């Protein structure tokens, strides 16, 4: 709902010499109307380190002459963010969204842009065993903990004489989920061994949470990307996995559509076999179900049993599709 | 002037620049103050403390507005030029003590950090010697007051000296001058502090005089709130409070009166100085007492 708000944003906007005539509240985004034009003020909960990475990413893209990201405006004191004790703010020009009329899906356009950013920032890193081992072991440990949580929930449900609909739905798929977790671990292991053998791996600048809600399409149906707040230097597989997970729902979990995203992506940056392994690992691990279970256990009052079940079912459908998708990705790899 | 207007437009990307007076311009981004600097190390220090002493959205300094090249200053002929916001509304004192104390505390915190400045200013201790013969001819009641204050001034100075020697290893803050409460301006309820382009001052002398005047204008309760707020900032500890007490104990206000006596001013002028001094004397006493209580409170917190 739009509301007329002014404080405390006017004092932040003073850092930009922007004197608001009117501010409209769109949640974390404030639309600021001034005599110098219309601007977007973003209110974030990034910490200092995240803010530094965010600015680093934006500057890097600007330096690489990448034009499809919305620019961040500096304050009159030459900084790109303004920090208070509770929030970090930044300002961008306001872009009005135009209805998307393109023939390709929005996600295909976004996958293309992600690939362009990845291609511009790709770097081959020497496989530093100590460093990679540390993050590899950390991920393995994290997944083991998550698997244990699912197994505990299954034990808890099975001990009950009358299971709730949520528990029943979960138990029906518990074995499949466990198998997926094991498979995810195998893919991760394959990635690790290949990198170890090749003694190198690739990193790129990852957006972190690219989706149609973090893009504005123009009259030419081309996206301008926003919200690089979760950006980091990581493997392309990580960004792609997050992209697939977030955007799967927009395609009604159509594998063919997702395969088209990969085609768009690989036109700019073909994935290496080990990156596909890692991608499959990320995608297969049933983390979304862990979140659904956590939410069911910790937030019983927040949503009805039916809502919890519906959410779980959606995630299970998505994971089944991912299972098939990963087979196609790997088959494709084996065939080639 | 036109040459400077064009230069400012080019450096800062303004579309419009118009001189209001020698130091203030009106631009399409509001009123700005121009400062010029010949000493680059002093300029660097002023950029740094202004950049560091802010707490959004409560306190801000008149930081240097960056040029299009993101520089804090730009070279104009033989000097450096900096540009600052020029805000008209004066920031209130009463009921806004928290923001004032925060500003002072931030400046003290920054002032205690490492710095490399070639020249700093330190107030010399005044001499309290006088010739009693100078009292001749003054009214008896004035003479009595002067004699009494002189004795007490010597006692205060000795106390200050004793604490000073105990605290001689404690680092003193390097501060910009506190000249007047009008340096604080208000926009959207933010305190914007207008710094100077003076030499950096070592120690609490200018803050002492500022807070003595604060007590006279706003009273003891208000001053207590300012000190409490300074006390909440990072670097203001009991050692710093003692250094501050040393400065307040030192009877600078008495030196004013003795100077007046030495220069053979009229009885009326001396009486006026005496009245002003006695107000400051009382305010200084209150300030020492508040700082002393603050130190005691810190000890209670520790124990």
TrEMBL record, chain A:
GO cellular component, one term: endospore-forming forespore
Keywords, in A-Z order: Capsid protein, Virion
Aminoglycoside phosphotransferase domain segment(s): 49-256
InterPro entries the UniProt entry points to: Aminoglycoside_PTrfase, CotS-like, Kinase-like_dom_sf, Spore_coat_YsxE
Domain of life, source organism: Bacteria
Protein name listed in UniProt: Spore coat protein YsxE
UniProtKB/TrEMBL annotation, chain B:
Descriptive protein name: Uncharacterized protein
């Amino acid at each position: 709902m739009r509301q007329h708000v002014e404080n405390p944003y006017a004092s932040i906007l003073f850092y930009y010499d922007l004197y608001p005539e009117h501010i409209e509240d769109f949640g974390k985004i404030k639309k600021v109307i001034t005599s110098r034009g219309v601007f977007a003020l973003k209110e974030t909960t990034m910490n200092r380190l995240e803010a530094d990475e965010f600015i680093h990413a934006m500057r890097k893209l600007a330096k690489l002459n990448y034009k499809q990201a919305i620019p961040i405006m500096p304050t009159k004191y030459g900084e790109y963010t303004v920090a208070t004790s509770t929030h970090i703010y930044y300002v961008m020009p306001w872009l009005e969204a135009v209805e998307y009329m393109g023939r390709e899906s929005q996600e295909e356009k976004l996958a293309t842009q992600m690939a362009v950013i990845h291609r511009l920032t790709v770097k081959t890193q020497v496989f530093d065993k100590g460093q990679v081992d540390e993050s590899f072991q950390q991920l393995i440990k994290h997944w083991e903990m998550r698997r244990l949580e699912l197994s505990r929930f299954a034990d808890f449900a099975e001990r009950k004489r009358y299971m709730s609909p949520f528990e029943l739905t979960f138990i029906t798929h518990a074995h499949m989920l466990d198998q997926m977790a094991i498979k995810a671990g195998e893919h991760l292991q394959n990635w690790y061994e290949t990198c170890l053998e090749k003694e190198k791996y690739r990193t790129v600048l990852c957006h972190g949470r690219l989706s149609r809600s973090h893009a504005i399409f123009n009259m030419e149906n081309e996206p301008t990307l926003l919200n690089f707040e979760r950006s980091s230097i990581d493997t392309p597989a990580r960004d792609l996995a997050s992209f697939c997970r977030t955007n799967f729902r927009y395609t009604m979990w159509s594998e063919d559509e997702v395969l088209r995203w990969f085609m768009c992506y690989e036109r700019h940056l073909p994935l290496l076999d080990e990156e596909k392994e890692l991608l499959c690992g990320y995608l297969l691990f049933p983390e979304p179900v862990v979140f659904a279970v956590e939410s069911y256990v910790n937030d019983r009052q927040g949503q009805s049993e039916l809502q919890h079940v519906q959410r779980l079912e959606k995630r299970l459908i998505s994971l089944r599709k991912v299972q098939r998708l990963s087979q196609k990705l790997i088959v494709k790899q084996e065939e080639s | 002037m036109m040459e400077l207007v064009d230069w400012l437009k080019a450096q800062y990307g303004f579309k419009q620049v118009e001189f209001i007076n020698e130091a203030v311009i009106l631009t399409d981004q509001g009123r700005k103050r121009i400062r010029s600097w010949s000493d680059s190390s002093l300029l660097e220090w002023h950029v740094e403390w202004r950049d560091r002493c802010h707490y959004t959205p409560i306190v801000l300094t008149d930081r240097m507005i960056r040029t299009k090249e993101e520089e804090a200053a730009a070279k104009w002929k033989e000097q450096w030029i900096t540009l600052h916001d020029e805000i008209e509304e004066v920031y209130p004192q009463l009921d806004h003590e928290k923001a004032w104390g925060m500003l002072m505390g931030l400046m003290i915190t920054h002032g205690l950090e490492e710095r490399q400045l070639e020249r700093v200013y330190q107030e010399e201790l005044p001499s309290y010697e006088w010739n009693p013969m100078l009292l001749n001819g003054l009214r008896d009641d004035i003479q009595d007051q002067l004699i009494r204050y002189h004795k007490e001034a010597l006692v205060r100075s000795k106390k200050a000296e004793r604490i000073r020697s105990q605290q001689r290893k404690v680092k003193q803050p390097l501060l910009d001058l506190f000249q007047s409460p009008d340096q604080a301006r208000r926009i959207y309820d933010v305190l914007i502090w207008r710094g100077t382009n003076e030499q950096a001052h070592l120690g609490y002398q200018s803050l002492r005089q500022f807070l003595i005047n604060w007590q006279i204008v706003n009273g003891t309760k208000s001053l207590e709130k300012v000190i409490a707020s300074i006390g909440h900032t990072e670097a203001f500890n009991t050692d710093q409070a003692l250094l501050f007490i040393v400065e307040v104990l030192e009877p600078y206000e008495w030196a004013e009166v003795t100077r007046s006596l030495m220069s053979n001013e009229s009885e009326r002028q001396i009486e006026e100085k005496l009245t002003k001094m006695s107000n400051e004397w009382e305010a200084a006493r209150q300030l020492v007492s508040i700082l002393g209580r603050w130190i005691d409170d810190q000890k209670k917190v520790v124990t």
